Amino acid sequence: MADRAPSIRQMSAGLTLAQRKRTYTLRCIFIADRSMIDKIANSIAEALADVKDGSTVMIGGFGTAGIPDELIAGLIAQGAKDLTVVNNNAGNGDAGLAALLAAGRVRKIICSFPRQADSYVFDGLYRSGQLELELVPQGNLSERIRAAGAGIGAFFTPTGFGTELAKGKETREINGKHYVLEYPIHGDVALIKAECGDRWGNLTYRKTARNFGPSMAMACKQAIASVHEIVALGGLDPEAVVTPALYVSKIVKIERQATQGGGFKKAA
Predict the structure, then answer these.
(1) Could you list the residue range(s) of the whole structural domain that residue 218 is in?
(2) What is residue 263's predicted lDDT score, i.e. its pLDDT?
(3) Is 174 part of any domain?
């Protein structure tokens, strides 16, 4: 996250001449790489260009908080289909994730809270057999995503034991308590909404818009983030960076839009 390479004196202390030469070469490579790293996409279309048919796409957001609507709209325009989508919900109204479902691009959705007062797009597709659902308790969903990013092979949880959600899964009694074995959810692409980023891809978030974003970025092969502000390297306090650049493939700047109660965009 820092934009300063260690000095030759610091790196060469106590080294032989051959080791110092190699250290100098590595430092030059570091500086060159630092100057070339630029993950800023010129457009949403450019940021999403590599999303393939059949991908597992994790989409950040909790209800309407932190939903990357602009990236979802871009994914619809991009045309990738037969997708498996991972999100806490299954869309609201006709916009965002609901629009992606309505476009027929999603084969399966993995979520914890699919039905709401305005989830009629999901309801219609699911009842007609056009959409597969994997229902996951919210805590399990969060932990399965986190486990993927942390490199955990599987974990036992008491949530779901003795219910339909545990059918066909391994169970175990540990210290007198019953647990269900759950596996990580790995993704191909994460679409997340952040507040601010730099060209390396370091990200900060705004309050509850953070939600699943950081863990999804870690759980996927690539992460694409929309941001409202892009700052120069060093412009972000390292202590405030939530998602390090290591986990981010592309960032794209979007305009901030006013919202009304519930997070929905105000009518023009």
Answers:
(1) 44-135+186-255
(2) 55
(3) no
Domain count, the chain: 1
Give a three-class secondary structure readout of the chain: CCCCCCCHHHHHCCCCHHHHHHHHHHHHHHHHHHHHCCCECCCHHHHCCCCCCCCEEEECCECCECCCHHHHHHHHHHCCCCEEEECCECCECCECHHHHHHCCCEEEEEECECCCCCCHHHHHHHHCCCCEEEECCHHHHHHHHHHHHHCCCCEEECCCCCCHHHCCCCEEEECCEEEEEECCCCEEEEEEECCEEECCCCEECCHHHCCCHHHHHHHEEEEEEEECEEECCCCCCHHHCCECHHHCCEEEECCCCCECHHHCECCC
Question: Which pLDDT does position 20 carry in this prediction?
Answer: 60
pLDDT higher than threshold 60 for residue 32: no
pLDDT recorded at residue 131: 97
Tell whether 190 is covered by a domain: yes
**220-230 pLDDT, tens per residue?**
999 999 999 99
CATH number at residue 106: 3.40.1080.10
Is 70 a domain residue? Answer: yes
Query: Does any domain span residue 5?
Result: no
